[in-house]
Amino acid sequence: MVFLKWEEPVEPNGLITQYEISYQSIESSDPSVNVPGQRRTVSKLRNETYHMFSGLHPGTTYLVSVRARTSKGFGQTALTEITTNISAPTFDYEEVPSPVSESENTITVVLRPAVGRGAPVSAYHVVVVEVDGSRQVRRRELGPQDCFPVPLSHSEAQAKGVPNYYTAELAPDSLPEASEFTVGDNHTYNGYWNSPLDPSKNYLIYFQAASHFRGVRDLTFLVLFYCLQLDVLPHC
């Protein structure tokens, strides 16, 4: 949605009877958006010097024109460009899957690609969070306000006493389709050490997709699973 407000012409040359607003998409990083798009027109009453555009595509630039009309016809057109914010990517999980397999220090899960909204996915992150076993944690999707935008490696998280760390960063082209990934395999993924899990601790594993567009970053998360003391309860 975009809210647009304008001023009455300095020289209306008569009594304004209406305003006409036209808009169309002219640029988008989303390949599903047609550019240039269909031009749409909205009429406003003479005392309505504002309009709320709704149903717009995220991450898309629109060319907007406004012109006033009197009994003599339409006057000059004022032009402006408006770019909508991107939206968080969405995952195609119908339901949260169970782990594929487990060992004393690892958990293998299925990662599915996300769909960008307004901008393509720029990176995936697998995030590990140590949790207090006394807390009741339920699987749920999280919004951007619950994300982990600050990347912390395992060593950085330990040094700062923070319970969460990036255990892997994956490029979008490395996940063209659903693939298995082993958390805690002791390998390094784009600079992040996938540290073996401690079987005496409790963990939440998150899967994050990030999009970037013109300096704006949006994130979305999915809680993959909750594991409680791997050496005692081998199945989550």
UniProtKB/TrEMBL annotation:
Main location: membrane
InterPro entries associated with the record: FN3_dom (IPR003961), Fn3_PTPRU (IPR057598), R-tyr_protein_phosphatases (IPR051622)
Keywords: Disulfide bond, Glycoprotein, Membrane, Repeat, Signal, Transmembrane, Transmembrane helix
Keyword Membrane (UniProt): yes
PROSITE patterns according to UniProt: FN3
Pfam families registered for this protein in UniProt: fn3, Fn3_PTPRU
Domain Fibronectin type-III: 1-90
Domain of life: Eukaryota
Signal peptide per UniProt: none
Membrane topology: Single-pass type I membrane protein
A single GO cellular-component term on record: membrane
Cellular compartments annotated: Membrane
Listed name of the protein: Receptor-type tyrosine-protein phosphatase U-like
Organism of origin: Clupea harengus
Gene that this polypeptide is encoded by: LOC122132675
